[in-house]
Amino acid sequence: QKEVEQDPGPLSVPEGAIVSLNCTYSNSAFQYFMWYRQYSRKGPELLMYTYSSGNKEDGRFTAQVDKSSKYISLFIRDSQPSDSATYLCAMSDDTDKLIFGTGTRLQVFP
Amino acid sequence: DTEVTQTPKHLVMGMTNKKSLKCEQHMGHRAMYWYKQKAKKPPELMFVYSYEKLSINESVPSRFSPECPNSSLLNLHLHALQPEDSALYLCASSQATRAVRQGYTFGSGTRLTVV
Questions:
Q1: Would the CB atoms of B56 and A94 count as touching at under 8 Å?
Q2: How far is B17 from chain A (nearest CA, A)?
Q3: Quick one: which of B21, B41, B45, B25 has its CA closest to B109?
Q4: 20 to 30 A from A17, CA-CA: which of A52, A62, A87, B80?
């Protein structure tokens, strides 16, 4: 079993839709959670990071963590074609390493 | 300056060549990282430098040799690579290794092709 599981997609949605991206993990030592966005042939860009269970909102993005279920989500409201990218979850047990999910490819069509 | 700059953006090298990838940041970050990313795969950690000292080597083959000349620069020296080493090589930095709590800042990467 991989430490971090993420559906690779692709996930295809119409412009304006609410998008839900999810990761599950097996290591209960993970404490810190991030979401990255990666456009084709570019480096990952940090979108959000969070520590505690619950929700964290930043503009159209909401990160949700449920440590009891070992489940994290990223919601994108009012999705735009420019949101089309691969979204990677990442997490850490407070060591020097980030463990990444495999990424979900999102396509938002006009 | 909130960027991590990597050069070159693209590199094609033969299996007998020696080349170097360069990474630079001026954010005062004291931890720097090399990652390797194959197509449609997540980034894989190769090396971690903390305060210019190598703190993690993820059992990377010796044909990859990292170097951290100062707190702003990170190099990756390449020698006798194999075609399967072709990938996107990403550099990242963070304020300190424990600041992995807030994620890294990644560069745009060097796309390496070994022929």
A1: no
A2: 24
A3: B21
A4: A52
